Amino acid sequence: MFVQEEKIFAGKVLKVHICTMEGTEWLEEVTEDTTIEKLKEKCLKHYVHGSLEDPKTLTHHKLIHAATERILTESKTVAEENLKDKDCLLLIKKRPPPAPPKMADISSEEKKKQENKAPDKEAILKATANLSTRNTDRTVTQHNIRDFQTELRKILVSLIEVAQKLLALNPDAVELFKKANAMLDEDEEDHVDETALQQLTEMGFPESRAVKALRLNHMSVTQAMEWLIEHVDDPMVDTPLPGQDTPGAAAAAAAAPAPAPSASLEEARQDELTEIFKRIRRKREFRPDSRAVIALMEMGFDEKEVIDALRVNNNQQDAACEWLLGDRKPTPEDLDKGIDTNSPLFQAILENPVVQLGLTNPKTLLAFEDMLENPLNSTQWMNDPETGPVMLQISRIFQTLNRT
Fold it and tell me: How far is Cα 199 from Cα 179, in angstroms, rounded to an integer?
């Protein structure tokens, strides 16, 4: 008996389930070594019931594996496409490419776009030239809000000077402010992670730079290292952050000479109190938001300018960016100016009994210093049982006189 060679070496026969978009279904027998193209040809012959008269019929169809939703490659065999017995395949007609638009359609589309285009500034001004001015109250409201922020800061600056003078007259002032200074030390959040600092210094970075990088990056060693590498050529890289004393400055402060023996006790007491005031002020200096500093510096602004912008705008990054791009008003120097001490507003504040009593409390001075440099902390002091009543009276007096 004669047996053809191709039958002897034919691959395993699979029964594949074929489905079309019209809902026709049948089983197609195919060997593993059959190509997908041959399988598709067999399916199309079954589908059209005969030979393929139009050669495009073959190229305009494709087989898709239903379970995996992948298009089968026609040059590969059934085995290479990993088809199994009783797998379901979809015979799909390819979508024809979209017809190119006609010139008339393109013209009408462009005309439609032009009609829907937003008006430019010139068109707006021309259309609104004859309209009367309205809604001016909004501008006045914004102006008053700005005045409130500016005046409140001026009030705090002047009240700090008054409070320092009053507290200096207290015989126990030095001891009171030493306690206040110690209280600030307990609340100090600007500590440096020694382990993180050691890792950076062991990499070869200078300690002062490493400290600055860690403070800017919330003590993250990885982010601090990236910052140090990025700013290695920055001329301002060694400029300390506000409130960050350099080791040399700390050593100089420690080595500061004591008052001469011939100086009077009162002068020595005043000098000591002045130094305590300076230390308290230094600890309460403005602390810029590290993320905002990095983001604004990456835009190309100088570090000092960025810190000034954030200080003027209460650590608000967007407002600081607008300030840097605008006329830069108010200036950082304007923030240190006090209110006119002869003004009715300041006189009314000083005559208030609650304010008078509060100005003799060292904690009130600390609150004023903190709010002056970090306005966002005002809520904390408003809720404090000792400083809250003072702040409430100042606010009420300001609002009353502002309305009149």
Answer: 35
Q: In 3D, which of 383, 400, 404, 397 has the Cα closest to residue 355?
A: 397
**CA–CA separation, 318 vs 324, rounded Å?**
10
Cβ atoms 79, 52 nearer than 8 A: no
Span 191-231: which CATH code? 1.10.8.10
| Residue 313 three-state SS | coil
| pLDDT in the model for residue 352 | 93
Tens-place pLDDT, residues 266-290: 566 566 666 666 665 555 566 788 7
Q: How far apart are CA 25 and CA 17, in angstroms?
A: 7
> How many Å apart are CA 208 and CA 338, to the nearest integer?
35
Specify whether the CB–CB gap between 284 and 369 falls below 8 A: yes
> Under a CB-based contact definition with an 8 Å cutoff, are residues 213 and 200 in contact?
yes
Domain ranges across the chain: 13-93, 146-186+335-402, 191-231, 290-333
| Stated pTM of the model | 0.40
**Tens digits of residue pLDDT in 167-208:** 777 777 667 666 665 655 544 445 677 888 888 888 888 888
Q: What is the CATH number of domain 290-333?
A: 1.10.8
Element (H, E) at 91: strand 88-93
CA distance 222 to 239: 21
Residue by residue, DSSP assigns 153-174 as: HHHHHHHHHHHHHHHHTSTTHH
224-267 per-position pLDDT tens digit: 888 888 888 887 778 776 545 444 444 444 444 444 444 466 56
- Nearest Cα neighbor of 67 from 32, 17, 133 is 17
SS3 345: helix
CATH class name, domain 13-93: alpha beta
Paired residues of 88 in beta bridges: 17
Taking CB atoms within 8 Å and a gap of at least 24, the contacts of 218-223 are: 218/290, 219/192, 219/193, 220/196, 221/196
Q: How far apart are CA 159 and CA 345, in angstroms?
A: 12
Beta strands in 223-357 (DSSP E): none
> Which neighbouring-strand residues pair with 19?
25, 90
Report yes or no: 307 and 242 within 8 Å, Cβ to Cβ. yes
